[in-house]
Q: What sequence folds into this?
């Protein structure tokens, strides 16, 4: 798994493996991705607001099923819900600058 952080002074991707702990301070722009083909699990310890945000967006995917490419409707909902919670979501240009393509 890789974690990207931009704290205004330094930025970049950090590798995180089994047993690693990554701390992301509040207000720091960040991204998490799994560039490999093996499933990865991540345990988040966070405030209840982020938990509610993630639960609102969650969708069940059957065991062994491929994760679908997000549709326009799914992406629209992501941006709408993020705005409701006051969360920043990188633009396509910002994401592309760090190697992320959504949709």
A:
């Amino acid at each position: 798994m890789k974690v990207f952080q931009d704290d205004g002074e330094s930025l970049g991707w950090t590798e995180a493996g089994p047993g690693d702990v990554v701390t992301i301070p509040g207000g720091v722009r960040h991204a998490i991705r799994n560039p490999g083909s093996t499933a990865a699990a991540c345990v988040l310890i966070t405030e209840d607001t982020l938990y509610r945000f993630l639960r609102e967006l969650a969708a069940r995917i059957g065991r062994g099923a491929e994760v679908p490419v997000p549709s326009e409707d799914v992406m629209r909902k992501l941006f709408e819900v993020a705005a409701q919670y006051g969360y920043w979501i990188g633009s396509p240009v910002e994401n592309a600058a760090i190697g992320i393509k959504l949709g």
